[in-house]
Amino acid sequence: MSAYALLLLENTYLPGVLAVRKALSDTKAQFPVVLLYSAKNVNKDTLALFAASKLFSDLINIDDNILVSNSPHTLEFVLNRPDLAYTLSKINLWRLVEYSKLVYLDADTLPLQNLDHLFAQNFDASQVMAAPDCGWPDLFNSGVMVLQPNMTVFQELMDLYESTESFDGADQGLLNHYFNPGLYHGGTSRWLRLPFIYNCTLNSHYEYFPALQRYFQDIKVFHFIGDKKPWDRNYAAQLRKDPSLFKVADNKNVYELWHEVYESIEIDGHSQNAILQISEKAEPGHVATVEAVEAVETPQPQPPVVHHQYYYKEPESEPEKYEENRGEAWKLNESRGPNKWEDPSESEEEKEDTRELDTKELVHSLSQLDVESPQDDYASTHPIFPWEKSAARQKPTRSFSARTSLPTTLTKIPFTAAFDNGSELENYIASRDQAERPETLQEIKKDEQLDEQESQELEKLAP
Ligand SMILES: O=c1ccn([C@@H]2O[C@H](COP(=O)(O)OP(=O)(O)O[C@H]3O[C@H](CO)[C@@H](O)[C@H](O)[C@H]3O)[C@@H](O)[C@H]2O)c(=O)[nH]1
Ligand SMILES: [Mn+2]
């Protein structure tokens, strides 16, 4: 048996799921449609309505295997989509082995043409069919996939989930990692590329409108990727009226097309608005983590639920003010270690001495840097500034030979762990400083003189 599969992890995507389901009917899909959902996060009355209306041939509760992002930092700060914390749960598609083939559609897709022919494609269970992602076309977008459920693949995906951070923090990164191993390094791809018209994703920074105009009639599925969805009320209202947006069909833009489908929904006498009202009546508790699903009895802390624009709530407290005088790290609440320069027993002279030594050490290290001297006086033969033209311009007085390795004084900086006890380390530092000091002082003096000389020369030459 084959089926279309949709995913509803949370109430906020309900309008999307309803629209995809309606669009499948509108495009005369002949295959059943199954819904994977999180019972903890989808309103019970909505689910009851789904069950009664037989809108879906199978309602599959995946609460026993909700997968939370294994790379939340990437999700939040690189992909910028903390709201996708649970989309790795898509992996559950591969364990539905009672289905021989699934055509998976994200809740923010809009099928525009019949897709039944996808079920006739023959491929191996270790492969996946998907269209390229508009942001990185060598990878696939995981919003539309043709796949064959298979326990080996499911287990391998779970192993990857447990062992390796998804590179986008969500499902698309992990699935591409799995089906596109060794991309750019000779790996054999198990991704079968569907044409872009099977998952037309446009981003707001670059849209290739001429192609959209040329091929719109061929687009099978449009996909509203990104954090703004057509059902976000304020946003969609704006976009539907935006005259600058490209009209794709019947003088309508894609948002208008989505709404046309959405507004035509009617399930057992309920309009889409009535269904939405049911779903918004009581907010169910959100799943905190995978462990929270497993340990049902133990109350878990609630994760921040990030809603889309329409659901955005004002923060309850003012953000903390930046305190310039306290430095960058004060909020980290780290305990402070003792700083030598803050030791009250240390005299002002001692402090001065330490600083001086540090500088000397640095100057000495820098003097060890090997830099090749110029072959000729490049500036006098290629003048840029007027004084560079002067015949009186001195040749460089100092030269450095080519740097081949790190200066020894830097590479030999002692590492505390190499010494058995503190006093041994202190002795080492003392003896090293003694040995280097005279030479370093001389060099500093010489350098200072040369600097002074050079700046005087330049002052004389400057117009
Ligand atoms: O709170 C949520 C979040 C997601 N979903 C489901 O998960 C899907 C993926 O989220 P979506 O907002 O559609 O992600 P995209 O903006 O499409 O982002 C891209 O990146 C995601 C993370 O890798 C992939 O899941 C998508 O397929 C890919 O298009 C949705 O369509 C829903 O089916 C929910 O039901 N509730
Ligand atoms: Mn999507």
TrEMBL record:
It holds the Pfam family Glyco_transf_8. InterPro entries: Glyco_trans_8 (IPR002495), GNT1/Glycosyltrans_8 (IPR050587), Nucleotide-diphossugar_trans (IPR029044). It comes from the Eukaryota. Signal peptide: none annotated. Residues 314-357, 369-403, 431-463 are annotated as: Disordered. Residues 314-343, 433-448 have a biased composition (Basic and acidic residues). This is Glycogenin glucosyltransferase. The lineage of its organism: Eukaryota, Fungi, Dikarya, Ascomycota, Saccharomycotina.
